[in-house]
Amino acid sequence: MFSTLRRDIQAVFQRDPAARSTLEVLLCYPGLHALWGHRVAHWLWRHNFKLLGRLVSHIMRWLTGIEIHPGAKIGPGFFIDHGMGVVIGETTEIGEDVTLYHGVTLGGTSWKKEKRHPTLGNRVVVGAGAKILGNITIGDDCRIGANAVVVKSTPPNSVVVGIPGEVVIRSKPRPAQSIPDLEHGLLPDVIGKTLNALMIHVEELERRLDSQANGQPLPQAVNGGIWRGEDFSI
After folding, report:
1. Is the C-alpha dihedral spanning 107, 4, 140, 191 positive or negative?
2. The dihedral sign for the CA sequence 128, 129, 135, 137
3. What is the pLDDT of residues 36-46, one digit of tens each?
4. Tell me, what's the pLDDT at 41?
5. Environment class of 111 (CB within 10 Å of its CB; exposed 0-12, middle 13-18, buried 19+)
6. Residues 31 and 104 sit within 8 Å (Cβ to Cβ)
7. What per-residue confidence (pLDDT) applies to 234?
8. Which residue, of 90, 98, 221, 223, is most buried by count of CB atoms within 10 Å of its CB?
9. Contact 232, 170 (CB under 8 A)
C-alpha cells in the first residue's frame, strides 16, 4: 500500500515540472487528493461498503472537481494533471503510469449493468478534453489528442486525433519505459492529409485522361500522398 502511495507521488514529479517539493504535492495537487480518495472509496466498494464508498467519492468530487466512481480500477503511477472536470465511470480499468489531463471523460455507452466503460493500457496519455466512450480498449503507450472522441479500440503505440477519433500508427515505436509525451501543438492533421491525397489522385487521373485523349502514352501513376503515419510526439 505504501509503495503505491509513494509511486503516486513520484508520478507527479516525473510528469509535472511545476512540482517543487513533496509538501507542495501533498497539499496542492487535487489530482493526487482525488486519487487517494478513490483508493479509500474503492477499498470500501470492494468490501461491500458501497454506500460509504459512494459517499467518499462524492466528497472528493466536491473538494477536487474530479469524479471517480469507487468501482473503477486504477493501477499505480496514475496522474491527473490539473484535473477539473475529469469523469471516470464505474467499470473503467486503468493500467500503470497512465496520465489524464483536465476535462477528460472515461464514459459508458450503455445502461445495462455490464462492462460499459473503457479499459486503458499502461503508459497511456489522454489529452485535455478528450472523451473515451464505451467498452473499448486503448492499447499500451497510446496517445489520445486533446478533444478527441474515441469510440473504437486502438492498437498499442498509436495516436488518436479528431472527432470521431482517427487512429495513426507511429512509425517509430517508443521504448516501454520512456517518459510520456504530449505536445498539443503537434497533432497530425489526418483530414488534411487525406484531402491532399485525394487532390493529388484526382489531378493524376485528369493528366492521364488528357494524355489518352491526345493519343499520348499514359504517364506512370504517382504513388504518393497516401497517409503513411509518422512519429508524432503529442
Report:
1. positive
2. negative
3. 999 999 999 99
4. 94
5. exposed
6. no
7. 46
8. 98
9. yes
- Distance between CA 104 and CA 160 in Å, rounded? 14
CA distances from 26 to 7, 63, 64, 66, 140 (A): 13, 14, 13, 17, 29
For the segment 36-90, what is each residue's pLDDT rounded down to a tens digit?
999 999 999 999 999 999 999 999 999 999 999 999 999 888 999 888 899 999 9
Contact 13/25 with Cβ under 8 angstroms? yes
Q: CB neighbours (10 Å) of residue 64?
A: 21
What is the percent of the chain where pLDDT is above 90? 36
C-alpha cell at position 188? 497530425
Beta strands in the chain (DSSP E): 67-68, 73-74, 79-80, 87-88, 93-94, 99-100, 105-107, 119-120, 125-126, 131-133, 137-138, 143-144, 149-150, 158-161, 166-169
Q: Annotate 29-50 with DSSP letters as a single string.
A: -HHHHHHHHHHHHHHHHHTT-H
- Look up residue 209 and give its three cell numbers: 485522361
Tell me the angle at which helices 50-64 and 30-46 cross, rounded to the nearest 10 degrees.
170
Q: CA end-to-end span of the chain, whole Å?
A: 32
Of the given ranges (21-25, 108-112, 117-121, 167-171), which has the lowest mean pLDDT?
A: 167-171
Question: How many angstroms separate the CA atoms of 1 and 39, rounded?
Answer: 10
Dihedrals phi, psi of 139, to nearest 5 degrees: -65, 165
The secondary element (H helix, E strand) that includes residue 182 is none
